[in-house]
Write a structure and sequence with these properties.
Number of strands: 7
CATH architecture: Alpha-Beta Complex
CATH superfamily: Nucleoside Triphosphate Pyrophosphohydrolase
CATH class: Alpha Beta
Radius of gyration: 14 Å
Number of domains: 1
Structural class: alpha+beta
CATH topology: Nucleoside Triphosphate Pyrophosphohydrolase
Length: 140
């Protein structure tokens, strides 16, 4: 079976040791908390796509601080083979607001992450915690 392959970005927005997640409004993982993110447009770099997606999905202007990793497991998205580049970001300015893709948006402490997280985003959060020097005991 052949599936479409896309390249995407996942901004990992951290402020005061809290991580920003959105609750999906539709599609697979509807009602699950995920990182804001999406497809890289043909004319974009991965970093510029990360900044754009963060703004579109959260209302925040962000600065990319560090590349976190490359996530390419064919099982990470049941609908397509989404290859994602994750970046650690810090918010610069703006007010939190949802768009049509999310029903809620909020910062979670690393000690109190939601149980229902979509895609492989818990793995990406764990990797971000390592970069930030936080132990895995902070996850439930």
């Amino acid at each position: 079976m052949s599936r479409n392959r896309i390249c995407a970005v996942d901004p990992v927005i951290v402020k005061e040791n809290k991580i920003l997640l959105i609750k999906r409004a539709f599609g697979i993982f509807k009602g699950y908390w995920v990182l804001p993110g999406g497809k890289i447009k043909p004319e974009e770099t991965a970093e510029s796509a990360c900044i754009r997606e963060a703004k579109e999905e959260t209302g925040l202007d962000v600065e990319v601080v560090k590349f976190l990793g490359f996530y390419d497991s064919p099982e990470r998205d049941p609908e397509k083979h989404a290859i994602s580049l994750a970046f650690l970001c810090k918010p610069l300015k703006g007010d939190l607001k949802t768009n049509s893709e999310a029903t809620e948006i909020k910062f979670f402490s690393f000690q109190n992450l939601p149980e229902k997280m979509g895609f492989d985003h818990r793995k990406i959060v764990e990797d971000a915690m390592k970069v930030l020097g936080l132990s895995k005991e902070h996850l439930r």
